[in-house]
Amino acid sequence: MSLRIGIIGCGNMARILNSEAERIRGTVVAKMDTVPEACEAVFPDARKCLTLEEFLSVPMDLAVEIASQEAVRQYGAEILRRGVSLLVSSIGALMDGETMKSLLRAAEEGNAHVYLPSGAVGGLDAISAVRGRINSLKIITEKPPASLGVDVEERRLLFSGPAGEAVKRFPANINVAAVVSIAADREAEVEIYADPGAGGNTHTIVAEGDFGRMVLRFENVRSPWNPRTSFLAALSVLETINFVSGRVVVR
Hints:
The protein has 251 residues and is α/β, with parallel strands linked by helices. It folds into 2 domains: 4-119 and 232-245, NAD(P)-binding Rossmann-like Domain (Rossmann fold, 3-Layer(aba) Sandwich); 124-228, 2-Layer Sandwich (Dihydrodipicolinate Reductase, domain 2). Helix content is 31%, strand content 26%. Helix 4 links the parallel strand 5 (85-88) and strand 6. Helix 1 (12-19) packs across helix 8, helix 3 (69-81) packs parallel to helix 4 (97-110) and helix 6 packs antiparallel against helix 7 (175-184).
């Protein structure tokens, strides 16, 4: 049976998924956004829903959150309690321990799963493999000033501190800090730079421990619809959807 998918959020990521629709191993059956008109541009055969109750009235196997951290907090637990698995793209919401606990309790009640895409980075399998052995974990993010909502003429450090604070200060820009921290089971230290010379969004992960030293660098093309988001982040959502529907797992 084909995977039945509901989409929460009809903005940038939904547009990319829509443009890659032939690669999705499943059928988008429902869509919802706080701006309902935005849903007109994506997945025309899916039912446009105005409320969560209407959304959940459509039989589905997987709800895909591609909206915001607030959407995760507002809708996530109820979706899981209803027995629908949830893909969370706004992973920064899970740096709040209470939100994470709420989703895990709801998933257990509904016998559902929470899926976290790797977003604008990769190598999370390696980071997870050394969980508990990491002595130092750092993420350096560099983006063009417009992507970070600032106007500077030279490279400037905008933030330096823990991942939990970074996702609050930059909720639309730094989900990578959250997913890496969760994979490592250790809160990463984060530096965010605005760089007028940056051609795209770059993330460098440095992890050190008794296993050695890892340096993972990703130089990403920005989304054509939203320069704050890397194209890779949307493609990782697509790949996670296909992972849920697939029979073969590559790690």
